[in-house]
Amino acid sequence: MIIIIFKYFIKGVINLPIIFFSIIKHFLIGLIVTLTIIPKYFILGIKSIFNKKTNDELKVNNKPLIPIMMISLSLFIYFLSVFLFSRWYVQGLKIKYLTNDIISSTEVIEKIEEKEEENINESDENNNEENSNGNENNNTYYPNDYWDYINVPYIDVNFNSLIQKNSDTIAWLKVEGTNVNYPVVQTTDNSYYLSHDFKKNDNAGGWIFGDYRSNFNEFKKNTIIYGHNLNNKTMFGSIPDSVLSSNWQKNENNHIIKMSTPTSNTIWKIFSVYTIEPETYYLKTAFSTETFQKFINTIKNRSIYNFNTDITTDDKILTLSTCDNIGTKRVVVHAKLVKIEQK
Questions:
Q1: How many whole angstroms separate alpha carbon 288 and alpha carbon 291?
Q2: Three-class SS of residue 113?
Q3: What are the tens digits of pLDDT across the range 132-157?
Q4: pLDDT tens digits, residue range 164-173?
Q5: Topology given in CATH for the domain delimited by 87-342
Q6: Can you give the pTM of this predicted structure?
Q7: Cα separations (Å) of 275 from 205, 266, 282, 293, 304?
């Protein structure tokens, strides 16, 4: 028995080089055929389009060549489409399963800030004084409409496990009236997370990410977050159908965006939603007082719905950007900071 096994083992070892060279041989033959025959028939096909006589002469096994070529091309396009659709569908499923896993394993707490009346009055006075001094980066900064939204609960997220999974994690974003309820990442450019998911795996669905110029520790004039519009309604896929709908717009509870970062919890009030051709104007982050006032007027006037919200140059803006359902235009949401809690 041992002798028989050893015998076949020796035969296998001897045949390995033969198999290897056979593979190389057929690969080279296939390559030569591809480089010589395909261009030949491609040229003949082009000629046949303009020459009926040549077309009649182009036959394979006495059958017209053009129909054969058209059938072959159709089959190639069909199988390519099946492959691309399957790949897109599978990647969409991966995004969906990943988001469900992250949401189920992350504790997102809604909490209402509790303050005594005396503290509110004192803080309100501090707020007015700080706004008049133009101090935007002080930890005790209060937005102008802070007290109008005092009863709107924050979301508070513990980022320890998220940062362990992806050190690029900088926030958790929730947009009321949509499916958006995900962690936000940020890196040194605005291209990487267009094609990589939260675990940094290649995925055409990408992930929700902050503009590399934005500072999520000290919100500046315009903080920007991007996300793909996916057909399965994950990432920013639920935003266009929601914010462009009159039913969504008429419900004031939908006008709130909540964000938690490792350093603060914030509430944002939506004041503008619109669709526009691809541009960079609404993606500006640096302003003078004059240019910021013009920026505010422009993006507010673009809105397809009047949110009855006043915006001043003292306000801080959050911008969400995604594609429309066709993919040729951009759907944009602007909100202003109305409440902040430092951690």
A1: 5
A2: coil
A3: 444 444 445 667 677 778 889 999 99
A4: 999 999 999 9
A5: Sortase; Chain: A; (2.40.260)
A6: 0.71
A7: 21, 26, 12, 21, 8
